[in-house]
Amino acid sequence: MTPVLRIGNASGFYGDRLSAVREMLTGGDLDYLTGDYLAELTMLILARDRLKNPDRGYAATFLRQMRDNLALAKDRGVRIVANAGGLNPAGLAAALRELAAELGVDAAIAHVEGDDLRPRAVELGLGDPLAANAYLGAWGIAACLRNGADIVVTGRVTDASLVVGPAAAHFGWARDDYDALAGAVVAGHVIECGPQATGGNYAFFTELTGLAAPDQPAFPLVEIAADGSSVVTKHPGTGGAVTLGTVTAQLLYEIGGADYPGPDVTTRFDTVELADDGPDRVRISGVRGTPPPPRLKVGLNTLGGYRNAVTFVLTGLDIAAKADLVERQMAAALAARPPAETRWTLARTDHADAATEEEASALLYCAVKDPDPAVVGRAFTGAAVELALASYPGFHVTAPPGDAAPYGVFTAAYVDAKDVPHTAVLPDGRRIAVDPPHETREPRPTADRKQPTPPPPGKTRHVPLGLILGARSGDKGGSANLGVWARTDAAWEWLAAYLTVDELRRLLPETAELPVERHVFANLKALNFVVDGLLGEGVAAHARFDPQAKALGEWLRARYADIPEDLL
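The structure corresponding to this sequence follows.
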């Protein structure tokens, strides 16, 4: 048994860089290569694919990547674990076997199933969704690998399970090796989104200059030890950087409180210790774990109705009055049968005395939703078009209005782990049932209910928060997650005292009337905020200008605050 297991990542979402698999296979040594293809929106896309063709429902790009790289992976002795099976892991495994035979590659292919609860959704109290998938853990993957699989494809497992499974199989961890499992969860969480660990989407990206290919960050890898500790790194000479900042940013991505519950272990993110381990190397240690919760999360995708949108361009003077006129005209035109939901957003992108027409223009966005496609179809777009000669001066829209389109809604439910038949299907067709956890425990509530002590008065400057703070944000269903971190002890003390829930609501007015939880991660010099309801019914419903809250953190960093001069 090698003392350190090298596990790389080659995909952070369905649509990620196609060349990443070859880059990772040829860039340096690896034991395993993983790929995460499944986001909440992806499951809806795959569900619609499966409706058209029952043999599909998996990430077709993975099959394309394997056509180009299966022989290479086999020659280099790299085993592959990916959740590209989506809603049909058995179908993808069968397609891979056909591909291997066509290419003449002797590859043992296994898959994990049991996450698809749609056939039993009514029985389990989940309604009648398009897709209902439980988040499985790592032990089905581990069983496949222990039985000789070269490739393991899964459906909906937790993102980190793609790393935990190989580590558990390699090191022989038991189900109650909670600290080791938690360490692997953290390692998996860091690399699951690919280049986000090496400088992609990084708040201080302007500092990543003078590096090898700073504009093309590499995909990351982790070196995991038998105790679950790890080092985050990348192949030598590849782009981007692995730093304490890039790893901290990814640790804060789309999490909640200090207890991070998963199907195999609840990981204590407040115990994570980071240390510089040399150029492009960050060591993760000290992670503690406790038993997992008794219930598994289930992602439900349903058809929410139909939506449409039109963007009016308002140019020059009297922008607010022009917006008010068109809103009144559209309301009158749709009064006989108004949409169930109408959302107006005015983006003041206009500049006074502008040198170009585009810089003189603002954008007025109108989005509508209704259960009936006729209400938000021609009836809506026709009303907008008919204003062309009868509305504000300079009337035009950004694109021809389209027809109504269906939208999906993502919600989370929970079922007893004992009700989910987690199964490893081995390369020879044998089926191994994975038992539910024998020990469970509910996670601790870790929201910060204390009112921090305000920072002492002193000389300050009114400047953007982003001068001293980093941020990373994202989505979980209709909730937004916003992590904020400081890079010095002094800045952390100020951040912890300054950025209360009330202050966040003042800085980001969209959150003012919404439930907000604040979680403290002193070990990372960070705060994490969970804003419930900011994204409405989730990304597929397009309820917001930034439907996944990807730029919420950058908005916060652009807001001005009175920052002590000694921190600047």
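The first strand starts at residue 4 and ends at 9.
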